[in-house]
Structure formats: structure tokens, C-alpha cells
């Protein structure tokens, strides 16, 4: 499985419409088409960034783009894919909902020299029971409705306690 989700491959949000998916699919294919790149210096210069969103990641192939499109454009396969993605997030300790779960401000976490946020678990008292980095906030966080605040669900690495981390993007 790719390190990038199908949504990331196409450069779209998980709530993208069918027309958004089709548009992104066409744009991504054109961005890596050899004939289109050869004649367009600007497209060639931006190819890696446009395709991966990050120059450090390996380039995405036509097959990756086609697979992502095939899954996301079909509503049944997209639902199944979203369920599988959700399960992966759960196994990793990140989950994007949680009504009724305690909400803790990011300000209550300690920042260490490894660029990680850490908090002792209030239930089991595990030292650094909750730990994550800024990449996790960007990747797994979601914006509250009608608010500039974001939330991310995380589980203690020692017990079953889940919390919502509340923060604002700068």
C-alpha cells in the first residue's frame, strides 16, 4: 500500500465531490504526461511538487493516479476505502471523531527537543502516554464547524483512553 492515501495522490479533500475527483484526476495525469511536460518548462519544474505535494516523497506514477481515481469515483468502492482508511487510523492511534471524549488543549502538552508533543496520561499515569508531532496534527486533524479550531483524536500508548487535542493552525 502506498504511503499516501488516494485523496493525497489526487490532491483532494476526503469530502471531495465526484466532479472534484474527475478534475483532479485529469490535472494529475496532465502534470506527468511526458508530451505535456516536455513543452511546458513551468510544468516540468513543478512536476514533483504538484504530484506529491512534497519534494521529498517519491514521484507518483500513472498507475497510482489511475488506481486512486478508480476507487474514489465509484461510491461503493470509495465507502469501502474510507472504512479501511479509518481502521488504519484507529490502529495507529489516530481517529477523526469522538463525540463525548475529553478535549484537551495543545497548550497543555510539553514540546521536546525531538519536535514532539507529549502529555502524561491522566488515567494510567503513563509518562508521555500521549505523544505526536506536528505532521500528525496536519495529517489527522480536522476543523471544527464554524470555527478556526482543529481537533485530533489520539489514544494513550499504554491504556485505552482516547482524548481530543484542540489546536489552531497558524
TrEMBL record:
Record-linked CDD domains: DnaJ
Keywords: Cytoplasm, Iron, Metal-binding, Nucleus, Zinc
Pfam families recorded: DnaJ (PF00226), Zn_ribbon_CSL (PF05207)
Coiled coil: none
SUPFAM superfamilies from the UniProt entry: Chaperone J-domain, CSL zinc finger
Predominant cellular place of this UniProt entry's protein: cytoplasm
J domain ranges (all copies): 5-85
Superkingdom of the organism of origin: Eukaryota
Compartments where located: Cytoplasm; Nucleus
Gene Ontology biological process: protein histidyl modification to diphthamide
Function: Required for the first step of diphthamide biosynthesis, the transfer of 3-amino-3-carboxypropyl from S-adenosyl-L-methionine to a histidine residue. Diphthamide is a post-translational modification of histidine which occurs in elongation factor 2.
Family: Belongs to the DPH4 family.
PANTHER family to which the protein is assigned, alphabetical: DIPHTHAMIDE BIOSYNTHESIS PROTEIN 4, DPH3 HOMOLOG-RELATED
Protein's recorded name: Diphthamide biosynthesis protein 4
